[in-house]
Amino acid sequence: MRDIIITLLVVCGLPFAFKRPFYGAVMWIWISVMNPHTQSWGWAQSMPFAAIIAGTTLLAMMTKPRDIAFPNTGLTWTLLAFTGWMCLSTVFAIGPEDPLPLLNKVVKIMGMTVVVAMLVRTRKDIEMLVWIIVISLGFYGVKGGLFTIRSAGAYRVWGPAGTFIEGNNEIALALIMVVPLMLYLVPLLASKWSKRAMWASAGLCALAALGSYSRGAALALAAMLGFLWLKSQDKLKVGVLLVVMAPLALVFMPEQWHNRIDTINTYEQDSSAMGRINAWKMAINLAADHPLFGGGFQIYNREIFARYAPIPEDIHAAHSIYFQVLGEHGYVGLLLFLLMYLIVWRNGAWVIKHAAKVPELEWALRLVRMLQVSLIGFLVGGAFLSLAYFDVPYYIMVTMVATRLLVQKTLKERAAQPPAALETEAEHVA
């Protein structure tokens, strides 16, 4: 039954892409982030839904050229440069394993990210992106939070098999990122019960992140919540809520959870933590030998570790977005990777500065603040996870830049209006 439902949803949704290609992009985000077919039990698991949706969207774009606008922004060009550099690093890859399958996967993600950026036009589009990310990840967050409550935190929360967020660490970080987006949506909901449901969903996502037993996620959650308080417009209310709820959540978790988290203070005695440090040193040594292009994809194997790791037999994945990019694409790749986040952050800061005194742009002000909170969670938690190519942060980047472009357009239109019209509009908004 699940196979049939998922297939019907995809098939019935495809025609909407020809009505407007943006709907195809939304379907792509849903299928690539939520991976609903992984929740089926039969043939739907192996169906190439992502390829079908991507192909349909590109075809629809050819039939609707007026719906397409290439975003001539710093982020777009840096993203394309980073993608091109990854292709070059693949040409000069030094590992014994074939890097092309992983390059193919990453290029598809980057390419569709640009497609999404080309199709976002309005505030409604932007908020639809937020909604689809919230629905896609919130499903696992609510499910994981209820599981944590039912098991009293005795068992770990895991993500959908065969996806970026399959592991307990990865699903935890994804859920931490989605909490601020849920909070942005709360004021947009009409009824008090829907608002309460969204607050409850955000709480369950945070609890599910704790229930993953991920130490990196615990640090990311603390950073995200602290930054959430800083970005909140009602610091007293949010501060009281955090002071009350955080201790309750910690008390709820069992002793084995606290024992696991406490190993952060004694990482030298933890084999997993020391294995990560060994992988980080391997990446630094490899980049020192290949500073421009790094080693390419597929460097986490016996041959590469024997050449560059302090402990050759302790083979681990990078477990850090920063060392992952450094080892795989060299210092130039790392510079481009960090530059993307710097550009996005500056876009958010620009919106906060210029939209603060415009009542009709209050939504943009709230959104970019929550996007920044989400990115802080990712950038902190990503220091301990190999998620450099996880697609959700790239969709958040697109959302941030699209918001700035829309704010710029609104401010330009306001500047062209006579003062009397602006006063009337302000009174209407108030």
Description:
By secondary structure, the chain is an all-alpha fold. The chain folds into three domains: 1-68, no CATH class; 74-119 and 271-430, no CATH class; 123-269, no CATH class. It contains 17 helices and no strands. It has helices at residues 2-19, 21-34, 49-63, 74-91, 100-119, 123-150, 168-185, 192-211, 215-231, 235-252, 255-262, 271-289, 302-308, 321-355, 362-381, 391-415, 419-429. Helix 4 runs antiparallel to helix 14 (321-355).
Structural features:
430 residues; 3 domains; 17 helices; mainly alpha
The arrangement of helices and strands along the chain is HHHHHHHHHHHHHHHHH
Major sheet attributes = none
Name the overall outline: globular
| Helix percent band | over 70%
Give the overall pLDDT as a whole number: 90
Number of helices: 17
Any low-confidence stretches, pLDDT <50, length ≥5? Answer: none
CA distance, first residue to last residue: 50 Å
Beta-strand residue fraction: under 5%
Number of strands: 0
Any idea what the radius of gyration is?
A: 22 Å
Would you tell me the structural class of the helices and strands? Answer: mainly alpha
How many domains in all?
3
